[in-house]
Amino acid sequence: MSNVELAPEEIVCGGDRAGAQLIEPREVPLGGPRAMRVRRTLPRRARSLIGAWCFVDHYGPDRVAATGGMSVPGHPHTGLQTVSWLFGGEIEHRDTTGAHALVRPGELNLMTAGRGIAHSEYSTPGTDLLHGTQLWLALPRQDRETAPAFEHFAPPLRDADGAGVRVFLGSLGGETSPVATFSPLLGAEVTVPAGGRVRLPLDPGFEHGVLVDTGTVTVAGTTAAGGELVYLSPGGSDVDLRAGDDDGARLLLLGGEPLGERIVMWWNFVGSDHDEIVAFREQWQRERAAGGVADGRFGAFPDTWPSTLPAPELPNARLNPRG
């Protein structure tokens, strides 16, 4: 997914305060005034990273007839991986590695941007309700020039004391995803029945986030509802998740070893500093004007793309780090 804000901020990630935090989302429209809206919990001023997780959008359930659904033309990424995870609906993905895939509920689509990639995302004609998350992972500095790639994985549903668990990245409770990552990570969907409780083991070296999709979840003494995220600092060996008495809850458990470095995010780019981001933007604009360049940073565009997104304008002054 693209960050389609017209004036995206430069965000310098790293050096956040430790501790447990409830992070409330802010709404961001994906396009015009009638466009689908997403609830964004990362990055925020309160917290910019959870391990390598650097961007968390939660959306729906939305009726495609009212919002237009997902309609994001070709756009670039650098220095990151995108994690697409749906709860309902279907999205068609195309990218400049030649990958063409459908994103479906309970199945992981992982796109590695590395040195540069471009992709598009459109909800399919048969989709009535669209509901899911779009997550980004920052690549460590030494891996940001890696080759772009695309992977798909459908994790099995496992029972954990009455809760349903799908591990799509990393390891949890004896279940391990085969998908390789560039830093130690965890990504899992957990469903807890109404009034239910599940205790899951954690890697004490990880920091974690509990992103609530539906229902309410009490974790670390904090109750969170749909779209909210509870951050847990490193040191805990397990997490106790309790669903509300009236209905069940579904959540994503995200975690990772602290990245240990500062990154700059602006629009759809992750880099090390202002100058690198400026260079990425200029390269995208040149390759976009040429209709895609096979040996360029972002690759040859698929023939089916009717359009691509222009990069927003940078501020007139040099972007100053914050965080």
Write a structural description.
The protein has a single domain (22-256), classed as Jelly Rolls (Sandwich). It is globular, with a radius of gyration of 19 Å. The two termini are 24 Å apart. The chain has helices at 64-67, 274-289; strands spanning 11-13, 21-23, 26-29, 37-42, 53-63, 71-77, 80-88, 91-95, 100-103, 108-112, 117-123, 129-138, 149-153, 158-160, 163-169, 171-172, 175-176, 185-192, 197-201, 207-214, 217-219, 222-224, 229-232, 238-243, 249-256, 263-266, 269-271. A hairpin with a 2-residue loop joins strand 16 (171-172) and strand 17. It has two helices and 27 strands. The strands form six sheets. Strands 2-23-20-25-18-15-14 form a seven-stranded antiparallel beta sheet, with no helix packed on it. A seven-stranded antiparallel beta sheet has the order 3-4-5-12-7-10-13. It has 323 residues and is mainly β.
* Assigned CATH class: Mainly Beta
Please give the alpha-carbon distance between the first and last residues. 24 Å
Judging by the overall fold, what is the CATH architecture? Sandwich
Give the CATH topology: Jelly Rolls
Largest sheet: 7 strands, antiparallel
The radius of gyration is 19 Å
How are strands sequenced across the largest beta sheet?
Answer: 2-23-20-25-18-15-14
Number of domains: 1
How many helices?
2
Which regions are unreliable across 5 or more consecutive residues at pLDDT < 50?
A: 14-18
Question: What proportion of the residues is helical, as a percent range?
Answer: under 10%
